[in-house]
């Protein structure tokens, strides 16, 4: 009896929460997203300029000088971060959107505008990442230096695509959307929220140095590009929204189908890597699939 009562209460709570969050322009999350404007780009662009200026002042804009300039910092961070190899290897997986995004897939039903902005932002970030990696063609640490001089965790990457860090771009694209969408109303809470999200992002991004895949400035620049991608994605979605269908109940079956394919991909990754972070990502996605399915079935009847 208690289980039935608890189950019914949980189901009613889900439906009430869904009803309140259905794409209303008056919702707290939508207000936060609507407050974003071009001025929001100033902070990350300024920080990006500062990094470039510092590299210029140190004559570190050429490939050889860029990598040599960071060698001591890379070796220091790599040596210390790699002391917890399992943690670093799990953290670095969060730079993969297939693993990170499932943690917020419930936004499809409870924060639809943030989900719509996220998809556009991830496309923008992918374009930036691919273009800039080919433009700069910076060799990875494992390409330049003796692999025995630093710690490599996981796959040894030796390509000419180190700058910027794609994992860092993806991480900050997702986290900045979360930061903006769920920004608290109180000033003190805003400071705490910003600190938590940015710190989490930097910890994930720096894991790329910990596993020996990137230089420190790769991840800093990647993080800023991710920030910029998120803002641009929000601004584009406000003008041209191509993803509203995905958050509309009529198309939930298609969303459920796509998420199911996603879950299968995660299972394949899980079999190959057997990491706790992938277990958690898969569980999050399965919860989202069951919740969306329940809402669709209940509302349909």
Summary, kept brief:
This protein is mainly α. It contains 14 helices and no strands.
Structural overview:
The protein has 14 helices and no strands. With 301 residues, the chain is mostly helical. Helix 4 crosses helix 11 and helix 13 (252-273) runs antiparallel to helix 14 (276-300). The longest helix is centred in the middle third of the chain and has 25 residues, at 112-136.
What's the layout of helices and strands?
Elements: H1 2-21, H2 28-34, H3 42-57, H4 63-81, H5 85-93, H6 97-100, H7 107-110, H8 112-136, H9 141-144, H10 166-181, H11 187-210, H12 216-239, H13 252-273, H14 276-300
Helix pairs in contact: 1-14, 3-12, 4-11, 5-11, 8-10, 8-12, 10-11, 10-12, 11-12, 13-14
Helical content (DSSP H or I, runs of 4+): over 70%
* Sequence stretches where pLDDT stays below 50 over 5 or more residues: none
Helix/strand structural class: mainly alpha
Strand content: under 5%
* SSE ordering: HHHHHHHHHHHHHH
Characterize the largest beta sheet: strand count, sense, and whether it forms a barrel: none
Number of strands: 0
Number of helices: 14
Observed structural traits:
mainly alpha, 301 residues
